[in-house]
Here is the input.
Amino acid sequence: MGRQKLDGFLVPRADEFQGEYVPPRAERLAWLTGFTGSAGLALVLAKRAAVFVDGRYTLQVRDEVDGGLYDYRHITDEPAEAWLAQHFPTGGRLGYDPWLHTQDGLIAIREAVERRQGQLVPCERNPVDAVWSDQPAAPIAPVVVHPLQYAGREAAEKRAAIGAELEKAGLDAAVISQPPSLAWLLNIRGADVPRTPLPLGFALVHRDGTVELFIEPLKLAPGIETHLGNGVSVSPPAEFGRALDRLGSQHRRVLVDRGSGALWIVEKLKAAGAGLVMGEDPCALPKACKNETELAGMRHAHRRDGVAVTRFLAWLDAHAAKGEVDELIAVEKLAQFRRLGELFRDFSFDTISGAGPNGAIVHYRSSPRTNRKLESGELFLIDSGAQYLDGTTDITRTVAIGTPTPEMRDRFTRVLKGHIALGAAKFPRGTSGSQLDALARRALWEVGLDYDHGTGHGVGSYLSVHEGPHRISKVPNRVALQPGMIVSNEPGYYKTGGYGIRIENLVAVQPEPAAEGGLPMLSFETLTLAPIDRRLVETKIMTADEIAWLDAYHSRVRESLTPLLDAATATWLAQATRPL
Here is the structure.
């Protein structure tokens, strides 16, 4: 910082693609602070620093980051700009890496610095990279074809459709800066980041449907060029900037996604003279609306995944109460069952395995240091998922070890009531997830409780376990839910120092038969198939309709999975899913 005449520097948990999952080379925040969560920001000044996280990580950050070096801040309640207002020196220079921030993402920070008569300064060389002596190399995992039998739609057809949308909007080209969009558009997959089959690269889509792909050529598996066809050219990443300059010199109107377009791209296009249009990634919405092949694949993947989870839950029931299981043993046992599944390729994220008070840490990751035995009288929360060639899964179950307390049963049942209310909802077309969020919270709100995370995130098809543009959350979201979208349904409750509860299924948005004269309606099809712990259900606070929903769900789980299970597990499942 001193050599670059900086008084401070921003260190986000981000790479140049603004993705949630980043390669080891881009884990700058973790290297610097010790914080390993999927979202966060550090602000480093000469004599003071702070780390900012959201509600999922308020406990984790205190466990991982030295409080003597960093102030802990909730990024919503105590944002970075407020901290700067208190601590940034008047007239100071705050540095940032323009590849790691979006234009919108820096607005509030820029204003805070300017109020201190300071400057926000782009850095050609990231100061963290300058001192990270053993920084990993850039990933070069092979890029492979995602077969049509799983994709359901030819890449050339997708390219033509996106090109037509650009032409309709009066645009000449769009920058594709999100690797999931790149993978979806060209029907390719990679392994450049953990747990998500992504090839890292950029693309330019033109109004005629042609694509310029900027990716390391060494990564392309044999036959990829044939798959891509004449409508796609391939160049090294170093050529990307020159391609942006060319668009600018031709005064083209170019779309950049406001949520993922790095500020470096924006400034490059502006400087070159392009007609810059900040908007939405043109691939995001069509990618989110799964076609029939993708939906069928997701159903098949969830059935196989349900077998693995059910085998695990039966094993857990037999061994946990004896004191034979800890968090890490549970993670490995579930992994063993999943690896046996057809078309299994990886896990969709690192399993969250939280026993007792560790379950209250929303995105907890067990380690040899924090590993805890599953004890009788406590709750165990396990959130996990897998990547199959035909689909991506994400499921959370909360299990009673021994006899739960009345309070545990009450809280669990209120979470279950919210899960059912959302899962059974019928709503008019045009409804956003934000308009449905309160359904999942109402039973908790009735007794003054809540949870500090979203209720639902989009899920990709053998892609990211977290995808947009839709979500179910208190945070306003104007994207209407549409048929084919997949979203999680995961209300929860967390008692710090006590236990955590979350019940998560994935659901697909589907058309609902309209009543005569009524509005076009939508509903949810539940994809996840695994039992919900009946021992934690307090039927006294459930309605008859809620009990009927759970009984019907368990009947479907039993009928779907029993033919695929061994006799002992099938017998256990019959007991675990018997009617309330």
Summary: The first strand starts at residue 8 and ends at 12. The mean pLDDT is 97. The chain has 18 helices and 28 strands. The two ends are 63 Å apart (CA to CA).
